[in-house]
Amino acid sequence: MLVRPATARDIPAIHAIYAHHVLHGLASFEEVPPAVEEMRRRFDEVTAQGLPYLAAELGGEVLGYGYCSLYRTRSGYRHTLEDSVYVRQGSEGKGIGKAVLAELIARCTALKYRQLVAVIGDSGNAASIGLHASLGFVRAGNLRSVGFKLGRWVDSVLMQLPLGAGDGARP
CA 15, CA 50: separation in Å to the nearest integer? Predict the structure, then answer.
């Protein structure tokens, strides 16, 4: 498996992966999949900021992707990013998400960011919570019933990983 920077050519595959999660899962609180053009706009926004946007491919097929975006846009949050990782249906449990997240962590650390936050949809999402924990994230909180999707209230789990010196030194 190759984890590499995503390109605009990957957007249709990324769109298909994300659309499935939007329609059938709780990882995203979107309920209508965005159009391919909107996914391209989001990709362009992340990459224009110099932030990592990665694709995982095997045999020439994109099986997963991930990116980091600003956690919040206010200047006081400028040292903190939020990660997003998605794996194609049927490819779960093969280490794709872990490979993508590990590479995101390495790239964000190299960029001198200090904190990485995961906002995980659904407190019952053991796979994503376990993935993040396996790479050193700790649970920082639970926002109870902040979303309503697929006919039920859904929590958000907050997890956090210090990068580099973390909060042990001034930026």
Answer: 21
Q: Hey, CA dihedral for 125, 157, 162, 67, is it positive or negative? A: positive
Strand partners, 119: 158
Find out whether 100 and 3 touch, Cβ atoms under 8 Å: yes
Whether 12 and 36 have beta carbons less than 8 Å apart is answered as: yes
Q: Are strands 80-87 and 138-149 parallel, antiparallel or unpaired?
A: unpaired
Query: For the sheet containing 53-58, what is the strand order?
Result: 2-5, 53-58, 61-70, 80-87, 115-121, 152-162, 138-149
Helix or strand run (H / E) with residue 23: helix 11-24
* CA–CA separation, 88 and 14 (whole Å): 9
SS3 4: strand
pTM of the predicted protein model: 0.97
Distance CA 47, CA 58 (A): 23
- Cα separation, 142 vs 16, in Å, equals 29
> CA quadruple 9, 98, 127, 125: dihedral positive or negative?
negative
- Residues 158-171: pLDDT tens digits? 999 999 999 999 99
